[in-house]
Structure formats: C-alpha cells, structure tokens
Amino acid sequence: MTRIAVVGGGWAGLAAAVRATQQGHRVVLFEMARTLGGRARTVERDGAQLDNGQHILVGAYVRTLDLMRSVGVDPQDVLKRLPLALVTSDGRGLRLPAGPPMLSFIRGVLTHSGWRLGDRLRLLATAGRWALQGFRCAPGLSVAALCRDLPAALNRDLVEPLCVAALNTPAVDASAATFLRVLRDALFSGPGSADLLLPRRPLGALLPEAAGRWLERQGATLRVGTRVQKVVHQQGAWRVDGEIFDAVILACTAGEAARLLESVAPEWARLAASLRYEPIITVTVDNPGMRLAAAMVSLPEGPAQFAFDHGAIGARPGRFTFVISGASPWVVAGLDAAEQAVLAQARSQLPSSTWSAEPIVVATLAERRATFRCTPGLPRPAASIAPGLAVAGDFVEGPYPATLEGAVRSGEAAVGLALGMVPAAALDAR
C-alpha cells in the first residue's frame, strides 16, 4: 500500500487526500492551521462563526460538487442554485433564463432593458466571434484590450464585474486568455453551467469539516496545527520532517511550497515565490429590516463590487456581505477606512427603502493573499516536480484563475502525477 503525504489542508489538499484514499493509499495530511479549508474556511470572530470571505460557486464546478458528494455533503442542502443574474440595486440588469447555454445567453442579452439595441447586438456579435475562435486569444492580451471595441456601458455593466469576480484582477491588468476560458466553461459548457451556487451554510460545512471526518473514518491521519519544516529525497524515498513516504503532494500556499522546495527544485521555488497577489476585503453587516433586489447585486461605483443578501439564499435573514475584490488600495488605506467607505457606498447606492436602521458591522476581514494576480502571459509553476513529488493548488499551471474548482482539479490531478500515472500534459485538459 502506497503511503502519501499531503502537505496542506485547503481545498486542493483535501481533494488530493480524498481521491488518494479512495484509491486505497494511506494518507497523512499535514495542515499548519488549526482548522481545514485554507483560504475558503470558517473563522471565529468575537464568538461569531464567519466565513473568511464571500465565495461564489457556479454550476460549471463539476469536480468540486462531485468531491462534496464523495464526503457526504449534498450540494442542494448547502448551496442555493440561482440563474445567473448581474443586476444592480434596483433589480435591473442581465438575467440568464433557463435553457440551452447559447440560447439562454442570447435571450438574456436581447431582453436587457438597460442597453441600447445596437449595443446588445454588438455584444452578441462579439461573443459569437469569440466562440468561432474557440474562446482563444493571444496570451499577452488583457481583458480591457480584448473588449476595447465594446460600448462603455457593456464594459461597465458586464465585462468588468465578471472579470473582477472571476479573476480578482482589474480588467486592464487581467489575462484575456484566462477570462475567455472562464466564459467558455461557465456560460457555454452545458445547461446550468452559469448558475450561481451561493453558500447558505458556513464554508466549513461545504467541504472542509465533512472531508476531515470522512478521511478519519477511512483511516487517514490528520495532523492539524503542524507546519512541515523539510521535504527531502533520501535513499530512494521522500522524507517529510524525517518521516518516510512513497510520494508527497504539496498542497500548501505557493510561498510555503517555495520554502520547502528551495533546495529540491530551486528554479520552481523562485517562480512560485515571484507570484503577486490581490487581496479581497469582506464587510459583513447586520440590518434586520434590509432587503436587496436579488441575492447578489452589482455595485457599479466602488469600493465594493458586489453585495450579498444572506436571507435571500436561505441563510441568515438580515445579514449582508459587501465584497471588495482587487482590494490592494484599501488594504493600504486600512480596514477601518474600507469599512467606512463601504457603508457610505451602501447608503448612496442602495434604495433608502431597504434600510430600517443603521447597520451593525459584524466584521471586516481581509484575505491579503486571496488570489494570485492573473495577468496576461503569466508563467505559473508546474504541477509535476519529480517522481513521487507533485504540487497542487489554484496557482499551479492550468487554464483557470484562482478558484475553488481550479484548486480541486489540481488536487485530484496531483495524485496521479505524484504516483507517475498521469502525464503533466494532462493538466492542460483540466
């Protein structure tokens, strides 16, 4: 029986550990934090259980949904499925009706009352051209450059919100190639692929807690609160802090992986350490009398780009989260400044009828390295390092930006890579 060490208990590490265990391998999972989940976890603040950020899943996250089912979580119980709607606080905007993806997109665009007919037809023509080109473009192209011929209203209402939501990188700096891949898989890959799947339970309940329990029931070993200090190859075996394993999967952050591989794979470590990041700030407020026009509304003038109504998704009525993506300037300004700016934005952009009282701020949280900056032509570290050694994470080489689905797919692929059963080129088809 093969003995595998998985270093890191985020969604990539949990995916690797679960799939390896299902294949009959003995797994030891190391996680430096006291809880599993990585950058998509539940945290405690002043006695309250909060998510470290507002995460969105979509119907195209097929591997993530399958992993949840594998550990006993029914996605229908923990996620609210809604047709994709990019609407503002007055309820107007793009809504995709049910049906075949392409037809749904066409109907949603043609019925958008806020765009001129000529603009709607231009968007459909542009999307059709992208489809004919296989949703591919030059690797050095930015999203802003890709969409420069679209009318300003379409860039403001559609392209920029989608870009910052999917890539957490402003359109002027974001990779058009990655953006098109996301559009292809999310909007046009199959019925329901564009549906929003909004968590109505804490993030810990979506996967990390159930996966931890499942792994322990299957005989895997979980070592939480343990930071691995050294990974070396000696006498034909891999050693993790001196303990012998047949294979090792590093599913920790890029920085941690670079530290552990500095002497094993120095070029890889340098590339991983060079990645740049974008933070996300989430402001959670309570206001029992407040209601939004939809479960998720777009806020056109920052700092927050989206607001979420937890009551509308079957979670906690009267609780709302405001999300600032690409939040580097606000991290510099400070969380207090970001919080006050979001409250001012809510007062000015949300209808006054939605407020019953002054909202109570529950918490303002910053995930300072939420995602890597997904820029054009960005070289990303390879997933395969050496026989018996692979890396998993949303930052490794692949077609997607930093998403839960990218993390899960990389974790699943890393099992085969570490055991020499899957060629590295297979990652391109993830």
Question: Topology of this protein?
Answer:
Blueprint: E1 3-7, H1 11-22, E2 26-31, E3 42-45, E4 48-51, E5 57-58, H2 62-70, H3 75-78, E6 79-82, E7 85-87, E8 93-95, H4 101-110, H5 117-132, H6 143-146, H7 152-167, H8 176-187, E9 196-199, H9 203-206, H10 208-217, E10 221-224, E11 231-234, E12 237-240, E13 243-245, E14 247-250, H11 254-260, H12 266-273, E15 277-286, E16 296-298, E17 306-309, E18 319-324, H13 328-333, H14 335-349, E19 360-372, E20 384-386, E21 389-391, H15 404-418
Parallel strand pairs: 1-2, 1-14, 2-10, 14-21
Antiparallel strand pairs: 3-4, 5-9, 6-9, 7-8, 11-12, 12-13, 15-18, 15-19, 16-17, 17-18, 20-21
Helix pairs in contact: 1-10, 1-15, 2-15, 11-12
Strand order of the largest sheet: 10-2-1-14-21-20
The coarse silhouette is globular
Helix content: 25-40%
Mind telling me the CATH superfamily name of the largest domain? FAD/NAD(P)-binding domain
Q: What fraction of the residues are assigned to beta strands by DSSP?
A: 15-25%
What would you call the structural class?
Answer: alpha+beta
What's the N-to-C terminus distance?
A: 28 Å
Unreliable runs = 422-430
- Count of alpha and pi helical runs: 15
Query: What fold name stands as the CATH topology of the largest domain?
Result: FAD/NAD(P)-binding domain
Radius of gyration: 22 Å
CATH architecture of the largest domain: 3-Layer(bba) Sandwich
The first-level CATH class name of the largest domain: Alpha Beta
> Taking all residues together, what is the mean pLDDT?
93
Q: Biggest sheet, open or closed, and with what strands and sense?
A: 6 strands, mixed
Number of domains: 3
Query: How many extended strands?
Result: 21
